[in-house]
From TrEMBL:
TM annotation in the entry: 20-41, 53-73, 167-185
Domain of life: Bacteria
Protein known as: Membrane protein YqaA with SNARE-associated domain
Organism: Thermovibrio guaymasensis
One Pfam family matching this protein: VTT_dom
GO cellular component: plasma membrane
Keywords: Membrane, Transmembrane, Transmembrane helix
Domain VTT: 35-153
């Protein structure tokens, strides 16, 4: 069982089954699986850089579909458990706070190295908007995976080591910039900024 969770095992599986292993990993990672699809995406992109955008598209779609399943797990079973453990008032307070920033939260969760599954299930627990989850997951996950794929497409396999070593840092930095831009835009729309 431990072997199934190793990155090396998943890389070898990806090399054997290609895009099918990538789609499966992207789907289950958004629900419960600990290994992010970036590992498999990078593996395939380093083998076939010319197909990098196709791999990014597959990863984005299946990760978002897995996110919808995670949402429904939270929606159908998570809220009663949350109310039982934390109390109805606390859950409602967190729901109101989450509702104010759900678009930003989902966008950042899709892009940053934070566990995406936590946010998909939490969105269901807090009865967040499913369409916002889908739209902002496609945006956040798409930006992340297409950015990775672009590096391979334009720079080839020699960039593989740099991406693997710095992926989380790059994603986090870009996520922070994205959050700042989103907050500025939101304040501008409300008329707070000139």
């Amino acid at each position: 069982m431990v072997e199934l969770l190793t990155v090396a095992f998943w890389k070898s599986l990806t090399l054997k089954y290609g895009v099918y292993a990538l789609a499966f990993n992207a789907f289950i990672e958004a629900i419960f699986f600990p290994i992010p699809p970036d590992v498999l995406l990078i593996t395939l992109c380093s083998v076939n850089p010319e197909r990098s955008f196709f791999y990014a598209l597959v990863t984005t779609i299946f990760s978002t579909l897995g996110g919808v399943v995670g949402y429904y797990l939270g929606y159908l079973g998570g809220k009663p458990l949350a109310k039982k453990f934390f109390g109805k008032e606390k859950v409602n307070r967190v729901h109101r706070l989450y509702e104010s920033y759900e678009s930003l939260i989902i966008l950042l969760a899709g892009f940053t190295p934070l566990p995406y599954k936590v946010f998909t299930i939490t969105s269901g627990v807090l009865f967040a908007s499913l369409w916002k989850l889908i739209v902002f997951s496609l945006l956040g996950r798409g930006i992340r995976f297409f950015a990775e794929a672009s590096l391979f497409y334009f720079f080839g396999t020699q960039i593989s080591t740099s991406i693997t070593k710095n992926l989380n840092l790059i994603s986090l930095a870009f996520g922070i910039l994205l959050a700042i831009a989103f907050l500025i835009y939101r304040r501008y729309r409300k008329g707070v900024l000139p």
